Amino acid sequence: MIDLHSHTNESDGTCSPAELVDAAVRAGVDVLGITDHDTFRGFDQAAPLARQAGIEPVCGIELSTKLQGQSVHLLGYFLGDNGLADFRHWVLELQASRRERNVRLAARLRELGFDITLEEAEARGRGMTGRPHFAQLMVEKGYVADLREAFDEYLDESAKGYVQRIEPQFAEGVAHIRQAGGIASLAHPVRVKGDVPALLPELCDAGMNAIEAYHSDHARRDTECYLGLAERYGLLVTGGSDFHGAVKPGVLLGTGYAGNLRIPGDLIDRLKQRAQ
């Protein structure tokens, strides 16, 4: 079983890298992509443990980028032996931008009357503190009923507490991934605002060479649409559950939400062939 989209607690998941590997073993996943946001720390820790458990680890990352003014997530997969030194250095710059945003987010939440500090959030998220860690604090302190309310009312892009952070343009993210020998895949396209088929020429012109057709958020018709777009534009296909652990308890490794994820067994072989 293949799952190329998962997160550890090195970004916004709740499982440690070791716990993620254990969950993959229990789920029967034998090819596991670890795609934390703006960091390889989860992958670096999990990869040797996965190999010991008989699981093939796939090095990945999820970047937040800007496209026509909206935030669009971009997956990068690195299947070769490249040391990724230059790319990893660039990722460190993204992490600095994230922390600067968190300083402003903590200040904004205090303006709204919430007794929440950056230090509290960073104790949870460490170097990759993000909005989910602020949301967890809001729930625990009784300001909101659950994580969904925290995001809907305060932390989502259109909510009153949202603070924008400097994100690379989509084309810039693609360029960095491709220059490092990686595969650049549009993450969960169903979440992209606007007409995805109409956007594809622009994304392909930027160098994007894959699309995440299989995802827990996708209904069958969505998957069929994205598979059709992949064929039309000569794109590779990626797929994964977007597993986050307790943050998304209904999404399981390998099978997604209520078993709606079925990734073909030859998908990873196709990606490897192109990477070579």
Topology:
Layout lengths: L1 E2 L13 H11 L3 E4 L6 H12 L3 E12 L2 E9 L6 H27 L6 H8 L5 H10 L6 H9 L14 H10 L3 E4 L9 H10 L4 E6 L4 H14 L2 E5 L10 E2 L3 E2 L9 H9 L1
Parallel strand pairs: 1-2, 2-3, 5-6, 6-7
Antiparallel strand pairs: 3-4, 4-5, 8-9
Helix pairs in contact: 1-2, 5-6
Quick summary:
The protein is α/β, with parallel strands linked by helices and 276 residues long. It has helices spanning 17-27, 41-52, 85-111, 118-125, 131-140, 147-155, 170-179, 196-205, 220-233, 267-275, and strands spanning 2-3, 31-34, 56-67, 70-78, 183-186, 210-215, 236-240, 251-252, 256-257. A 7-stranded mixed beta sheet has the order 1-2-3-4-5-6-7. It has a two-stranded antiparallel sheet with strand order 8-9.
What are the main properties of this structure?
TIM Barrel, globular, two-stranded antiparallel ribbon, about 45% helix, about 280 residues, seven-stranded mixed beta sheet, alpha/beta
